[in-house]
Amino acid sequence: MLRWLIGGGREPQGLAEKSSVQTIGEEQTQNPYTELLVLKGHQDIVRFLVQIDDYRFASAGDDGIIFLWNAQTGEKLYELHGHTHKITAIAPFSSSDVTEEKTDLIISASADRTVIVWDCANGRQVQKVSCFHSTVKCLTVLQRLNVWLSGGSDLCVWNQKLDLLCKTSHLTDAGISALVELPKNCIAAAVGKELIIFRLSASNNGSEGWSILEVKRLVDHQDNISSLVSVNDLTFVTGSHIGELIVWDALDWTKQASECNFWDSSVHPDVQPEIKLSQSPHETSVQHLTSDEQCVFAAVGKGIYVYNLQMKRVIACQRTAHDSSVLHIEKLPNRQLISCSEDGSVRIWELREKQQLPAEPVPTGFFNMWGFGRANKQANQAAKKMHENTPVYFLELVGDLIGHSSAVQMFLYFGELGLATCSADHLIILWKDGERESSLRSLTLFKKLAQSGDLQLRL
User: Where do the WD repeat units fall (predicted)?
Assistant: First the structure.
């Protein structure tokens, strides 16, 4: 295995341009990922990684090929050929047929307007459908109902055998960009600026009959919805290209809270402002959202933000977490975040509580949009008193993983097995805990020596 000690901050991209991105030295004591294993096979941008089980994952991208990998060893298990254009969506699907053993499947959609179901045990095609009128942009599995959904110019409901159970009428040419499961057999679909709520119904007479009904359209966003995530059975969140974040009630689909000042330093006094003449949509777009039920973690432009759902405000942020747009963000179990960017970097952050001195001014937070700009001293004093009793957090950079030469599209976290990243450089990298890997090698060597000694004694 290739061993690479990771370190070094990133240099400014030009002499006239001074980067405000945090840097970290070569001594990254809190960064365990000091070994990497490079996985080659793809011939184009690798955009998707999906976890199959505790040690297997699949990768897919613009070359139309899907690879199955072992996350522990980096071994290529299978190479799946069947699509003729780039992969546009991929999802894992475990069969729950009571008459058969559990089967791990993968569903993939492509710009060739086909969808294929693959068996992960042998890498073979189970079924293929070519009846789509447009490219399928997203796939969602409803494991409880043992069905899956495809979103494009319409919404289709399928069973495991790729029988079409029901579909909506043509929605728009732009089509559905994201789907999320809601309670009571409902689905939220992002279609441009709109959020459409659908309800699925199965036939009560024991037949295979299904129906899908549009029940509501939510038009609160001012721009196209770019990210959609379920928090729990009560809440889901959407983000748009102009930096709007809306928290929704998952049962009655009403708006619970909203945020639209991510990029505005005037409503975040504890962050050093940047001198910019204007903000382009590229810098304010919500590229990715994830949640741990208490907070929503948002990749907005070059920054990452932690939005507390109970407080209804941003409690920590790094406005320039990377040199370019952040494409993916995830929360780890140990109060750490990982983010990856178009700049080719993968960074580890730790959410820490800031120790405030009594004389230190308390930031008002982001979630103050209704009172912002109004001369309401009483409200401001009440808000200040509330925030004085509220802990203030910050994100500290604890690791910088430099290995990719182009945009890192996304990553998967495998716990003690490490981290898998994919990139526009056609590569997948497995980042490993150097101390753990060294201990495993020592243990293996010790066992071999012990077995060798045993053999000599017998001779």
Answer: 39-79, 80-128, 319-359
| Distance from chain centroid for Cα 181 | 16
Do the strands 155-159 and 164-167 form a parallel or antiparallel pair, or are they unpaired?
A: antiparallel
- The stretch 354-362 carries a mean pLDDT of 56
Closest CA to 246 of 289, 185, 203: 289
How many other C-beta atoms can be found within 10 angstroms of the C-beta atom of residue 149? 26
Q: How far apart are CA 445 and CA 443, in angstroms?
A: 5
| Torsion angle (degrees, nearest 10) of CA 55, 297, 309, 183 | -50
Token digits for 213? 């009904």
Which of the pair, 275 or 176, is modelled with greater confidence?
A: 176
Buried b (16+ CB within 10 A) or exposed e, 253-291: beeebbbbbbbeeebbebeeeeeeeeeeeebbbbbbbbb
Kindly state the greatest CA–CA separation across the chain: 92
Judged by DSSP in three states, 196 sits in strand
Residue 248 has pLDDT above 80, yes or no: yes
Q: How far apart are CA 64 and CA 82, in angstroms?
A: 8
- CA-based angle 174:186:48, to the nearest 5? 50
pLDDT score of 102: 78
Name beta bridge partners: 33. Answer: 433
Distance CA 395, CA 414 (A): 22
Q: Is the dihedral of CA 260, 264, 268, 270 positive or negative?
A: positive
Residue 230 sits at φ, ψ, to 5 deg, of: -90, 130
Sign of CA dihedral 105, 129, 50, 44: positive
Report whether pLDDT(9) > 80. Answer: no
Averaged pLDDT for residues 115-130: 92
The Cα 399–Cα 239 span in angstroms is 27
Structure tokens at 436: 């753990």
Could you tell me the pTM of the whole model? 0.82
Tens digits of residue pLDDT in 41-62 = 999 999 999 999 999 999 999 9
- Coil, strand or helix at 459: coil
Q: Which of 32-41, 206-215, 280-289, 437-446 has the highest mean pLDDT?
A: 32-41
Backbone angles phi, psi at 267, to 5 degrees: -105, 15
Is the pLDDT at 215 greater than 60? The verdict is yes
